[in-house]
Each structure stands twice: as structure tokens, then as C-alpha cells.
Amino acid sequence: MSQDVFQRYSAYYDLLYRDKDYGAEAEYVARTLRAASPKVQSLLEFGSGTGKHGCLLARHGFDMFGVERSEMMVARMRQTSQEDPQVGDGSFDCMQGDMHTVELGRVFDGVLALFHVVSYQTRNVELLQTLANAARHVRPGGLFLFDVWHGPAVLAQRPSVRLKRVEDENTRLTRIAEPELDTNAGVVTVRYTMLAEAKRDGRLTTFEEEQRERFLPKAHGVWLIF
Ligand SMILES: C[S@@+](CC[C@H](N)C(=O)[O-])C[C@H]1O[C@@H](n2cnc3c(N)ncnc32)[C@H](O)[C@@H]1O
């Protein structure tokens, strides 16, 4: 995946996923972490995007720190948290950085990578760097919770062309997703065509982006790191 694959996409990211139930997901993550380790408090989030899970988990009382590669995602996160600064008993902050190489000089009770961030690591070296850097940043006995594209489901369902239409008060957005499956590599390359119409003046913005995601034998994992 190129470094800036989420740069243009990020302008429409929150609108595109406004139907995604981040609240229920954050609740599931909080419950799963506390069941595995009741005193878990500090969490490092790899690929924190626009900070949706991070802010919600802060409301569940966790101290969150995100590392996100896309500068534009980080900028959107800062804008969102200014508009809605509620973080409950916890806290949320994030920085621009690469989860393969970032060195924060401290350890956390757990590491998260949510919404198949790990699947974007399509080369084995990237996957290994991700796992090694999670291990470097977690205390002994800490947790690493992540989800990935589930290989058996991908192979059974076969990726197909999909159309998504969403809108808010400013924008009417259409996304066409055209996938190509490489079974041997365990990778799906998706070409996204985005058409965004500004409601104010009807101006149309269009662009294309390609994203590559790998699928793995398991859909998600909670790993204890010793
Ligand atoms: C599908 S988005 C998920 C964002 C967020 N976790 C969410 O649930 O909305 C994947 C994110 O992973 C980030 N990402 C991918 N590879 C990364 C890396 N090596 N280091 C940091 N962030 C990365 C992308 O920039 C993107 O924001």
C-alpha cells in the first residue's frame, strides 16, 4: 500500500462510515479487554484513523494513544475531538506515525488495531514489524487486540463489485468498489472510484484510489504477550 493511500479518501472517511456502529464496537472491545485483564487502563491504538474508537474508548475510561500514518486522518481526528471533546474518565490523543517503526519509549497495558488495520500490511515483513512493535509497546502479560479480513469467508463469498451511496447535509457521496482477488498472495486489491457532489453548488469531485488488503485464516485475535 502506498504511504498516502488514505489521504484523499480521508476527507470523506467519516461520511462513508457513518452507518458503522462504532459505539457497539467500542463496547465490545472494552468488554473483551476487561474480561481478559480487569485492570487494563492504557491502550496504544495502531491506525487510529479519525479517532472514532479512541474517543469512545476514552469514554469507557481508557487512556488512549493513537498512531496513525495519514496526516489528513490525524487532522480530521483533531477537528472531531475539538467539536466533541467529551472523553469521560479516560483520555485520547494521537500522533502521525508509522506503526511499524514508531518508538514511544513507554509501554501500555494493551495495543489495538481496529477495522482491519492489520490487513493493510500486505507484505509479510510489514505484518512481522507490526507484531514486533506491538510487543515492544506492551507490558509483560499485556494484550494485543485486532481484527483482519477472514480468509475462509473471503474465499467462500468471493469479493464482488459494490456500490455505496451516503449523504449528509453538505455532500452526496457515491463509492464504487471494484475488487480483484489474488488467491495465491492472499490479497484483494480494491479500486475505489469516489464521486462527491457538493449540495450547495452541485460541484462534482471525483478521484480513484487503490487499496490492498490481505486475508488471514482467523478473523480476529486477542493475544497475550509475554
Ligand atoms: C480502515 S482504516 C481504520 C481506521 C480506524 N481504526 C477506524 O476504525 O476507523 C485503516 C487505517 O490504518 C492506517 N494505517 C495503515 N497502515 C498503517 C501503518 N503502517 N501505520 C499507521 N497507520 C496505518 C490508515 O492510514 C488508515 O487510517
What does this entry show, briefly?
With 226 residues, the chain is an alpha/beta fold.
Unreliable residue stretches: none
Gyration radius from CA atoms, angstroms:
18 Å
Level-2 CATH architecture of the largest domain = 3-Layer(aba) Sandwich
Can you count the beta strands?
Answer: 11
SSE pattern: HHEHEHEEHEEHEEEEE
CATH homologous superfamily identity of the largest domain: Vaccinia Virus protein VP39
Give the overall average pLDDT. 91
State the secondary-structure class: alpha/beta
- Per DSSP, the total helix count is 6
N- to C-terminal distance: 31 Å
Largest sheet: 6 strands, mixed
Helix content: 25-40%
Bound molecules: S-adenosylmethionine
Total domains: 2
Strand content: 35-45%
Assembly form of the protein: single chain
What general form does the structure show? Answer: globular
Defining traits:
226 residues, S-adenosyl-L-methionine-dependent methyltransferases, 2 domains, 27% helix, globular
Written account of the structure:
With 226 residues, the chain is α/β, with parallel strands linked by helices. The chain has 2 domains: 9-150 and 217-225, 3-Layer(aba) Sandwich (Rossmann fold); 152-214, S-adenosyl-L-methionine-dependent methyltransferases (Single Sheet), CATH 2.20.130. The protein has helices spanning 13-16, 22-36, 52-59, 71-83, 124-136, 151-157, and strands at residues 42-46, 63-68, 91-96, 108-113, 138-147, 149-150, 162-167, 171-182, 187-198, 204-216, 220-225. The strands form 2 sheets. It has a 6-stranded mixed β-sheet. It has a 5-stranded mixed β-sheet with strand order 6-10-9-8-7. The longest helix has 15 residues, at 22-36. The protein is globular. The mean pLDDT is 91.
